[in-house]
Amino acid sequence: MVSNEQSTLNLKEQICYQTQGEGIGSVYERLQLADLFLKLAGEFSFKSILELQGLEITKGLDNIFWQNLGAEISLCDAPGVLEIVKKCWFLPDPPEYVTSSHLAEKERTFDLVWNFAQIQQKPELLEDMKKLSHKYLLIFVPNYFNWGTPFHEIYHLIFRKPCQHAERGFKRLRHRAGLRKFLQSQKLKIIKEDYIDAPLLPDIGFSIRELKQTIGLKVKELGSEKISGLHVMEKALKMINFEKNKMMLFSHHLYFFCEVNLENH
Ligand SMILES: [Zn+2]
């Protein structure tokens, strides 16, 4: 039998291989999420997990680390997004795909409901998350205080493009104090909160590929030159991860792990 450590490493290699076209910053972010997910799974028990919306960004792939530990995974988004996500799932056991119209049947079903980078755009999504979980919520938002934020804002000012990136939405929900206040006002008990994903690379929102396209330069076709997952992982892990005292400036995201207080529903 393959040890847990070995199978986790295999999964990391696979995710690096499959998602390398998203850029090294994104691969790095996925590796950081994997480590957080494994840490949380070691401290808390999650048998059923739902990732609610935001799947056009994550493709639901980060859940493979929880699935590997035996959790049942469900992914919920618009039907069109789920069609794309289905094509990206590369493991033999598929998750359960749920469309929003079937969510009512799933109330209080999941041990954990999580979302990546949507709450700052749609705070009302939290209501659905609370209804669906009977235990825990995990919420990530892009960190407004990252040193790349001014570059992102200047990019949109210069090119006058409406922002479609995850790094948008209410500023008050993109820093720890503001998001903490919001979650507490929603009667959630905060168990853990922290910065995550803190490489030297700034979070500028747009990719170099997108910048080239915007200014009319030629770009290579995606996926034309794939390298091995191990090689991608080695490259990503060479990146510096900043320590606590510098994380506010370097983190691309912050997260809150909360308990749903059922008495207040
Ligand atoms: Zn943008």
Describe the protein in words.
- The protein has 265 residues and is of the alpha/beta class.
- The chain has one domain (4-264): 3-Layer(aba) Sandwich (Rossmann fold), CATH 3.40.50.150.
- It is 39% helix and 18% strand.
- The chain contains eleven helices and seven strands.
- The protein has helices spanning 4-19, 24-43, 55-58, 64-67, 79-88, 125-132, 149-159, 176-185, 208-214, 229-237, 247-250; strands at 48-52, 72-77, 96-99, 110-116, 133-142, 188-196, 253-260.
- Helix 1 packs antiparallel against helix 2 (24-43).
- The longest helix has 20 residues, at 24-43.
- It is globular.
- Zinc ion binds at residues 152, 156, 163, 165, 167-168, 205.
The name CATH uses for the topology is Rossmann fold
Mind describing the biggest β-sheet? 7 strands, mixed
CATH top level assignment: Alpha Beta
Helix percent reads: 25-40%
**Average pLDDT across residues?**
92
Number of domains: 1
> Mind telling me the C-alpha Rg?
18 Å
Estimate what percentage of residues fall within beta strands. Answer: 15-25%
Short summary:
This protein has helices at 4-19, 24-43, 55-58, 64-67, 79-88, 125-132, 149-159, 176-185, 208-214, 229-237, 247-250, and strands at residues 48-52, 72-77, 96-99, 110-116, 133-142, 188-196, 253-260. With 265 residues, it is α/β, with parallel strands linked by helices.
